[in-house]
Amino acid sequence: MTRGTLLYIGQRTLLIVLTAFIVSSIVFIGVHQLPGNAFVGERRTSAASQQALLQHYGLDKPWPQQYGTWVTGVLTRGDLGESLKQRGQKITPLLLREARVSVSLGLFAMAFCIIFGMGLGILAAVKQNTWIDYVASFLATVGYSMPNFVTAFLLILLTVTGFYAWSGGNFYEDIGWGKLEQIPVPAIALGLLPMTLITRLTRASMLEVIRQDYVRTAWAKGLRSRVVIVRHALRNALIPVITVLGPITTGVITGSVVIEYLFGIPGLGKEFVSSIFQRDYNVVIAVFTFYAVLVGLANLAVDLVYPILDPRIRY
Amino acid sequence: MAPLLQVEDLKTHFHLRDGVVKAVDGITFHVDKGETVGIVGESGSGKSITSLSIMRLVPEPGRIVHGRILFGANGQPKDVVKMTDEEIRDFRGSDVSMIFQDPMTSLNPVLRIGFQVREAMSAHDRFSDEQSKSRVVPLLKKVRIPGAADRTKAFPHQFSGGMRQRVMIAMGLSNEPSLLIADEPTTALDVTVQAQIIELLRDLNREMGTAIILITHNLAVVASICTRVIVMYAGRIVEEGYTRDIFKNPQHPYTWSLLRSMPRLDAARHSKLLTISGLPPDMSNPPPGCKFHPRCRFRVDRCLEEEPPLGEVGPNQFARCWVLMRNALVTQPEKAAAAEVPIPPLTAEPAQIDQRSEPDRPGAVKA
Ligand SMILES: Nc1ncnc2c1ncn2[C@@H]1O[C@H](COP(=O)(O)OP(=O)(O)O)[C@@H](O)[C@H]1O
Ligand code: SF4
Ligand SMILES: [Mg+2]
């Protein structure tokens, strides 16, 4: 790693911290503009006990002061505060536990969309204008026009109801979390849309690269076709594909909100949705900030892959 | 002795939606062992497709539709056209190598120079892995890349155009092929670098005995290294012979015009140069008769209807013309002498020969 690379990582990290700061303050301000509070809906609370609760969580203080306390807690102790709904629950360990779930799901989805997206794209390009290409391109177009909740719905219909009926109740998807075999279906639901994007991009990029002079040179050297395709064409074709991995990672992270909710997966996304419904503002702020950092880190990771693939890029 | 390469009646056509483009249409020539042969002609005359046919690298939708390409001096020559996929793979880069016009785009941008040279050897079994590895630096030295030992780890973008072309040559020669095809290897380079590359090719030909087919539109380059020259026009050979004969006594009006349009060192710096006006024929709809007749100042009636054969016009010299320059210079001396000759229009657009002092203007002989 060169000094330039380290400097670049430093700059980007600083930028992520700055983004997290801005995101958290915007959400913080926004949330405090909303009427009512977390305890409004609770049945057993009198006006007096509500006041006590507000006091306990420091919600009676002016919000700049609240924000100051919160930021200090985050920076000094990594403490994101306490849940307003799950009494006594510290948010940091909660989010870390849930982030593990979301990250496993996200990595599965990314692996799925990268491996199958690139595979299908290469196949379609190498077999251009054959039925393989047409089928791959058709699937890519269909998948691309389906929002992930529709995909999720269809997959649930297929793997739960469908499989159950066809196998006479012996074999079906058991929706939920905790077992390895419960990961693929939601991961596919999450990864299908970005997969189709990668398929289309890889195909287009491969077709472009296959016509390049250096690929003709590779053939002229007498290299085997596998070497020409993989080492000479694919390596170059992947460069533009890597460009979209940043936005795709962001898409997978945000998409997980819907998918986790639909599949009942106890991850960040599900927490995010329920915290909003429950007006658990402390959790809302924490999850938002967490997402901002996650997106930043994912994009940084992608950007660090570039120079490995393309030696012309140096930081 | 059998020639190293014998191309017989080669036809490479492109079947397009709106017709057939006969990019190469029945050419026959040979290259002897260790020989340097030049192929000249304007852009679009079929030079690249000829060489790509020899490598069986004709781009889609092009096809070799006819002819034989026999390769191999000793024993039984093999027909490249009939080779299996594996045979042609092992033939490329090992028996015949090719280097291309644009060195800026011909090397893989993401792979190291040394690796790209080594890889050319690993693809064939002439050298073991260790030999391939240890040959890289000497090869780069041979093509005169300064500081060769330190530059194997460099990427192509760290090299100039001339240096990249040297790398291409090193790569091409790495398996010691008996034939190197260089398709306009200096066209994309600036003049001083051009001269260095041509000199390098000449020296390598002498040292290693590698036969060279040099494709160029630059007649000065042909004169400096090729013993024989083939002139192509519209997918055909229009003249062929020893360089010194053709330069002294061109028999085809096209060759004659090419030579008249060539800037000469011994001529006054601003002497008028002749350029061949008019466009090369539209290859999907070539003219009847002699393909050159719309641009020919010496044409006779016959030229419009009947295509002349490639006939022997002297010892080892062939030309495809009904009139031939030696007759034209006698019977139509005024046309030969004139810089400009009014050519009776065949179509709405009259052809003309115009005068220009700049040798490199667009529309001049250019490939
Ligand atoms: N990919 C292609 N598709 C269609 N026609 C082509 C293609 N490549 C070459 N040709 C035709 O072949 C002719 C000869 O091309 P080429 O051999 O490249 O010419 P040169 O190298 O002499 O400039 C061109 O005039 C063009 O009409
Ligand atoms: S055959 Fe006729 S038209 Fe063709 S080059 Fe000769 S003189 Fe000119
Ligand atoms: Mg060419």
TrEMBL record, chain A:
Residues passing through the membrane, by range: 12-31, 103-126, 138-163, 183-202, 237-263, 283-309
Protein name as catalogued: ABC transporter permease
Organism this protein belongs to: Candidatus Dormiibacter inghamiae
GO BP field: transmembrane transport
Keyword Membrane: yes
Similarity field: Belongs to the binding-protein-dependent transport system permease family.
CDD domains linked: TM_PBP2
Cell membrane found in the keyword field: yes
Cell compartment(s), UniProt: Cell membrane
Segments forming domain ABC transmembrane type-1: 99-306
Keywords for the protein's UniProt record, in alphabetical order: Cell membrane, Membrane, Transmembrane, Transmembrane helix, Transport
Chief place of localization: membrane
Database matches in Gene3D superfamilies: MetI-like
Domain of life according to the entry: Bacteria
GO cellular component, one term: plasma membrane
Bilayer topology annotation: Multi-pass membrane protein
Automatic annotation (TrEMBL), chain B:
CDD domains: ABC_NikE_OppD_transporters (cd03257)
Transmembrane segments: none
Record GO terms (molecular function): ATP binding; ATP hydrolysis activity
Annotated membrane topology: Peripheral membrane protein
SUPFAM superfamilies reported in the protein's UniProt record: P-loop containing nucleoside triphosphate hydrolases
Keyword rRNA processing annotated: no
Pfam family, one: oligo_HPY
Compartment(s) where it occurs, according to its Swiss-Prot or TrEMBL record: Cell membrane
Gene3D superfamilies reported for this sequence: P-loop containing nucleotide triphosphate hydrolases (3.40.50.300)
Region of interest (Disordered), residue spans: 335-367
Any single GO CC term annotated in Swiss-Prot or TrEMBL for this entry: plasma membrane
Record field: compositional bias (Basic and acidic residues): 355-367
One of the GO biological process terms: peptide transport
Annotated keywords: ATP-binding, Cell membrane, Membrane, Nucleotide-binding, Transport
SMART domains tied to this protein: AAA (SM00382)
Domain ABC transporter: 5-259
PANTHER family in alphabetical order: DIPEPTIDE TRANSPORT ATP-BINDING PROTEIN DPPD (PTHR43297:SF2), OLIGOPEPTIDE TRANSPORT ATP-BINDING PROTEIN APPD (PTHR43297)
Family: Belongs to the ABC transporter superfamily.
Protein name (database record): ABC transporter ATP-binding protein
Source organism per UniProt: Candidatus Dormiibacter inghamiae
Taxonomy of the source species: Bacteria, Bacillati, Candidatus Dormiibacterota, Candidatus Dormibacteria, Candidatus Dormibacterales
